[in-house]
Every structure is written in C-alpha cells, then in structure tokens.
Specification:
273 residues; mainly alpha; 2 domains; 70% helix; globular; protein C-terminal S-isoprenylcysteine carboxyl O-methyltransferase activity; PPMT_MeTrfase; EC 2.1.1.100; membrane; S-adenosyl-L-methionine
C-alpha cells in the first residue's frame, strides 16, 4: 500500500517525463511501480521470514494487477485485453487467500494463493500466453474483437462472485483440499448457493477458467481449457462426493437427489443406501 501511494503520487510527473524519452513509457512505469512495491516490502519485513513469504506473494499479485491496469490504459489496442487478463488472474489468486483468511483462517497456508496449484495449471497458463503472442503477431485484429473479450470478462466476474459466495456460505466447512476425515464442527451446507447446485465453487472456477481465455480471444485455449477443466472437475467431484457420503450418509444422498452438481455432464458419485 505504501509503495502504491508513493508511486501514484508521482505517476503524473513520471508519465510526462518518460513520454519525452521513450514511446512505450508505460513499460518503464510498470518497472518503477514494481521496484517501489518490493523495495518497501524488503525494508519493512524480515527477508526469508514466514510473513515475508506471504507479503511478497500478495505484492506480486498486486504488482501484476497494477501492470495489467497500466497495460489496459497505455498499451497498443491489441495488447489491452492482456491487461484485462492480468487484472483478472491476479485478483482471483489474491482473493482466494483473502477470502480464506476471513472464512476459515485455520486452513491458511502459502498454498492457499493457489499459485502452485499443479504442474498442469502452470503449463496451461504458459500455453495460453504463447497462443496469445503468436496470434497477436499473426492476426493482431483478432485481439481487438472487443465483444468476445467482454463476454469473457462477464464469465470471469460471474465465476468469481459464485465461487466467493460459495466460500462465504460454507465458512469453516470450506477447504481447498479434499478432507479424508470429518473435523469437529464440519456440517453439510445445503443453503444459499448450495441450494442451487452441490458444487458452486467448482462451477465458479470453471466459468472463470474458460472466461480468462475468452478475454484473451484464444480460440484454441478456450476449447482446451474447457475440456481440461471438465476432466479435472469430473475426477474431483467424484472423489469429493465419496468422502461426503462417508461423512453424512443418507443426508447427502437426499441432497444429491435434490440438486445437480452444476457442471455439465458431471453427475458425481452416487450410491444407493
């Protein structure tokens, strides 16, 4: 916050000065912004301490969102949607940690940011960047199809709202990791968004995932992300419902009968008691 305040107070002057020196001065603004943020963190937090590990991740996401904003404002038209994407993805990862800190702080750890969610997640992200860069170089006008990006933006926001609503509704019952043992106080949540479908947090993540590629107007990755996400959630939902049936028995069977999973062609794990 302190670094942002310092930077924002100087941004008008810096923009004026840099515009006389280089054409793409916004890139230098982004670099200066990053240095300000991480310089302040290094001064106020003990390097290598646990708190520092948290704040540099949060600052990295904040810096990414800030650079995304600068890209949206100052970059050439074909780059602007990448700025939207940066804002969306950084906001998602930060909000995962922030929301968990509110609803279930006991489960907090560095992995709650979901930055290292899985190797496949990282590979998928890199593939989407490569597709964007290649298509922007070959067909820059494709990345200026604004209505498609707007549809993607709406998908991302809808997914974010639904996922966070699920997290707040579940409260301490929410966890990023499938639980093998029922903790004391763990109850079956069936109200709020959970009355609409059994896995609203996964539905939200699915919408957000596909939405990010729609924002980038990445036709190949839109399809690939949809298929990969569907496969991941099919396996995840079935594994999770096995544990939920063990935890809640007949109550969960009746809940399954009243609701769908919320994900297309995914029916979960069913058993007749």
């Amino acid at each position: 916050l302190a670094g942002s305040v310092v930077f924002i107070s100087l941004i008008s002057l810096l923009s004026t000065l840099l515009s006389y020196v280089v054409e793409d001065y916004w890139l230098f603004l982004a670099a200066i912004y990053s240095v300000c943020i991480h310089g302040v963190l290094y001064l106020f937090y003990k390097p290598r301490g646990y708190a520092y590990k948290i704040v540099w991740r949060a600052a990295l996401l904040g810096t990414g969102a800030g650079i995304g904003l600068l890209t949206t404002i100052h970059a050439p038209s074909s780059w602007k949607v990448f700025g939207w994407y940066m804002i969306l993805i950084c906001t998602f990862h930060f909000s995962e940690y922030f929301t968990t800190a509110i609803v279930n702080p006991k489960s907090l750890n560095l992995d709650t940011f979901l930055l290292n969610h899985s190797r496949e997640y990282g590979v998928a992200a890199v593939c989407s960047w490569i597709e964007f860069l290649l298509e922007r170089s070959l067909y820059p006008e494709l990345k200026e199809t604004w209505w498609i990006s707007v549809v993607g933006f709406v998908l991302c926001i809808t997914g974010e709202v639904l996922r966070k609503a699920a997290m707040f509704t579940a409260g301490t019952n929410f966890n990023h990791i499938i639980q093998c043992h029922r903790e004391e106080g763990h109850v079956l949540v069936t109200h709020g968004v959970y009355s609409l479908c059994r896995h609203p947090s996964y539905v939200g993540w699915f919408l957000w995932s596909v939405g990010t590629q729609t924002v980038l107007v990445n036709p190949v990755c839109i399809i690939a992300y949809a298929l990969a996400s569907w496969k991941f959630f099919k396996t995840r939902v079935e594994a999770e419902e096995v544990t939920l049936l063990n935890f809640f028995g007949e109550d969960y069977v009746q809940y399954q009968k009243r609701t769908c999973t919320g994900l297309p062609f995914i029916y979960g794990f069913r058993v007749e008691l």
